[in-house]
Amino acid sequence: MDIIIQLAHGFVSCMTPINMAMLVVGIVVGLLIGVLPGLTLVMGVALALPFTYKMDVTASIVLLTAMYVSGTYGGAFTAILFRIPGEPIDVPMLWDGYTMGRKGQPAKALGWTLVSALGGGLLSAVVMVALTEPLAKFALRFSSPEYFVIVLFGLLSVVAIGKGSLANAFISMSVGILISSVGTDPIYGAFRFTLGSPLLADGIEFLVVMVGAYGVGEVLARLETGFATKPIAKISDAHTELPTWKEMGEVKGMFFRSAVVGDLIGLLPGAGATIASFVAYGIEAKFGKRKAEMGTGIAEGIIAPQAAATASVGGALVHLLALGIPGSGATAVILGAFMLHGIQPGPQVLISSSGMVYTIFASLFLGLVLMCAIGYFAIRPLVKILDFPEAVVSAYVLILCFIGALSIRNNVTDLWLIIGFGVLGYGFERMKFPVAPLVLGVILGPIAEEAFMNTMISFSNDWTVFFTRPISGTIVAFTTIVLLLPSIQRLYLRHFASPAPTAAR
Amino acid sequence: MHWTTRSITRSFAFALAATSAVLYGAPAMAAGYPERPIELIVPWGPGGGADQLARLISKLAEPLLGQGLPVVNVPGGTGGTGMAKLLSAPADGYSAAVYIADSHALLAGKSPRWTMADITPVAVMIKGPSFIFVKHDSPYKTWADFEKALRDEPGKLKIATLGFGSVDDFSLSVIARKGLKFVQVPFSKPSERYVSILGGHADALYEQAGDVASFLDNKQMRPLLIFGKERLPAFKDIPSSYELGFNVALPQFRAIVVRSGTPPEIVKKLSDTLAAVAAMPEYQKFLVDQYGAADSFVDAAKATPFIDEQLEDMKKTMATN
Q1: B88 touches chain A (CB under 8 A)
Q2: pLDDT tens across B122-156, in order?
Q3: What's the pTM?
Q4: Domains contained in chain B, CATH given
Q5: Does B111 touch chain A (CB under 8 A)?
């Protein structure tokens, strides 16, 4: 009861003009950041930080949190419309979201992302308000072995998702991990594959690979057909299509599953929206009612990653507010904003500044609703973009990719790299090697490596800890079941069913 | 793109100015400094200690200089990427970087990407000793308990650090050389390092007090040992490393540096501005919150010897390894 009263107070103090103005600004800017590939959430939030110096602490946190939440949503637009993931979290959105768009239902695909972002976000906000302290304590039990097995699950499940050759998917993932190993080794600082170049010593940014392989690769693929892909019919008549209640009723079970997974993964420091989105998609592809159709443009494939990504925000904020430990890059910046105003988040903040904390909670609720309202009205004009001639759209896609690559570290060499990875991505696609495991390997490879090395160092090279520690053992068992069942199933399917379309790239 | 063009024009203008200065022998350059914003490079990601310092300086120094000091985060390579950015900019005082002990430690390693000859320290802004912390309810009440456990079961206890080859590693190697065996677990992300203690995944943590201030205030962590010659007033019951015969005191420091070759008048102007910043109550409060030494500030004249001495200490630690 106490919590509800506090939250009501939070809503009242959130409704001040300044806080509401910050909320709207944060949401709009966050959506834009999400749309631009290369400009990540973390960079966006960091860029906004200086504007908060002169602001009241609550207003500044409201601004940054709003950016964080809407940034997990904006990238879905470009992923679905142009096949450019605006953020790494939007990579799974390409499989079903983009495919659904290509099947002539882009408005519907965007409608599903809107509903899942709203639902996932609200659910995690409720969980956050109700269970901040116990959840934070639970998350403390996770250490390197647990991180490693979670990331491993993310990697393996996506390999298994592809409908093409399993061997090709493995090769693709291994190439991705190999690319990610270029640079300075995170544990001992040894140089790997750097060829004496200082730029390579810093490693290859996963953003370069992601934007190159998808964005540039897609443009190259269209160039090959002379930009003659048949335009989607009657886009101009498309309404903003929200799913009907009946359709939503059919997926409520998997929606809850994805949102809970997202919220839990958001809780872990070092994990975050990206891993949440991949793992939720992987789980759906293994256990979902329509797992066989995943990747062919079905709603479940959109709901799982989006609901999990937005739900992870609540989890990450729990960690920040209750323990003072930022669970992700974006929350690290928000922590910086707190400290600039002389407030150190932690258990004492929940007691001493509970007014402020509940205002932030309330702003999360209001922000989600506002974000979806803005998104709703943005869908219609955005979908019209697909009416333009393909060559024109492709030119803009290339510009977006280049701006994204340059904004990573203001280095022109990254532009050459993104062209190189574009060619690589195109080549992979042509030779029936899926691109997704490649990109995933680059994103998750380093996280897996560090977690694995830390485990080996902490447990004096005893690899059995992955199986004997209760939480990691459970996840390993789960992963094994997940991986074995569908492989056998798939062998059956390959013999008896007609091959599914290979859209799941 | 916009910025690149600007910096090209900038360096062209600088070349012109330099030529005219040579021709007419007038030190015209420094007179109006600063005429435009000064870029403050943070070679680390947003949210960390170096970033917080830069943003505070940016806020406090702007009214004094009459120009903005935009903070640019250029993380990567233990600060190496950001330093490369500083060294590729003209030595005109319009680019400065935060330089911390962890980046400095790279100079003690082999083939560092820059040397002290490339940079000119403007001021040391904060110095803080490092500690060994344990969880508040840890069975090790004192350093003596911890040392006993290290001797009883060599190689069993885990100490979380920033990474191998870091300042943390140098300091701990002095303890290891006294026959105390432990496992050093590197966590490059601060959040994972702190969780490792709070969640009981590691037994002790090497860290500066300012970074874990909230955990100290909340009675979630407590110190066992301070690295330094003397005890600190704030922790008067905690023994110092020198008392126990571990002759190592590598404080974490965060300094502001510019490229070598920057006109001395400009270095002086920046150093004077930072001295004024360091004297402000808001900065003093920051120092207290960060558990920084009260006499942290070192001006341009004394900063170079201080930073050089740190490097010598690290090299000595390594040589005797």
Answers
A1: no
A2: 999 999 889 999 999 999 999 999 999 999 999 88
A3: 0.74
A4: 32-126+254-310 (3.40.190.150), 130-226 (3.40.190.10)
A5: no
